[in-house]
Amino acid sequence: MKAPTGSTTRQRGRVRVEDGKKRLRVYFGGAVVADTTRPLLVWEKPAYPAYYLPEADVRMELLSPDGGVVHSPSRGDAETFTVRAGGREAAGAALRYGHSPFEELRDAIRLEWNAMDAWFEEDEQVFTHPRDPYTRVDILPSSRHIRIETGGETIAETTKPTLLFETGLRTRYYLPKTHVRMDLLTPSETVSHCPYKGEAEYWSLRVGDGVRADVAWSYRTPLPESQKVAGLLSFYPEKVDLYVDGILET
């Protein structure tokens, strides 16, 4: 991957560090734990980065060392902190790699994403994990013939799908509900979040006397950049037979 113009990339093994440009605010217990325009993006795993925040931009009075140590072969040993605010606490929710081989991490704080109440990039709340600046989502109307089957029975068919292309992931085919046998689907209690698309609701399929859980999902009110899939349904090819122009997706 090529870094954006004006950014600096440092790498050691599989870990990569870049300078972020967005203002980042982190909330816990009703308090702003961190507010910075100088976040670091650290790829600890290939799929997406984590945020590390300059210690000077973190309210360190809300953090207490708790004696824990976390080891990373690439980042070194980190001391852990408990975050306390608003009468609540999150044990081990903050890390500092004070002697890291990455010099810029030595004075940075890593807050555990799921332990915090909310994360904002500029003035927009971000869910699930930080957005990867190298991930792109393209949503295009198509005239491909899509057919969804199970047990030889067609449960959806259209020549007006909407195709969603997301960097590093397989193409997803979104279908109008009017082209789906909705009488065979029942809403599920499952909910998931995507930092690029928003909150998804799920649908289960009635098959004979049984139910196949969460075979399809839909974004009722997706984030602005994904509005083109609002209200459409997409099916997991692992759970149904999905044919694209007569070819079975595997």
Q: How many separate domains make up the residues?
A: 2
User: In CATH, what is the homologous superfamily of the largest domain?
Assistant: Domain of unknown function (DUF427)
Q: Which regions are unreliable across 5 or more consecutive residues at pLDDT < 50?
A: 1-6
Major beta sheet summary: 8 strands, antiparallel
Strand content: over 45%
The CATH class designation of the largest domain is Mainly Beta
Q: Tell me, rounded to a whole number, the average pLDDT.
A: 93
CATH fold node name of the largest domain: Metal Binding Protein, Guanine Nucleotide Exchange Factor, Chain A
Please, how many helices? 0
* Order of the strands making up the biggest sheet: 1-2-5-6-10-9-8-7
Structural class: mainly beta
Structure explained in plain terms:
The strands form four sheets. The protein has an eight-stranded antiparallel sheet with strand order 1-2-5-6-10-9-8-7, with no helix packed on it. Strands 13-16-17-21-20-19-18 form a seven-stranded antiparallel sheet, with no helix packed on it. The chain folds into two domains: 9-126, Beta Complex (Metal Binding Protein, Guanine Nucleotide Exchange Factor, Chain A), CATH 2.170.150; 137-248, Domain of unknown function (DUF427) (Metal Binding Protein, Guanine Nucleotide Exchange Factor, Chain A, Beta Complex). The protein contains no helices and 23 strands. Helix content is 0%, strand content 53%. By secondary structure, it is mostly beta strands. It starts with 8 loop residues before the first strand and ends with a strand. The model is unreliable at 1-6 (pLDDT under 50). The relative contact order is 0.12.
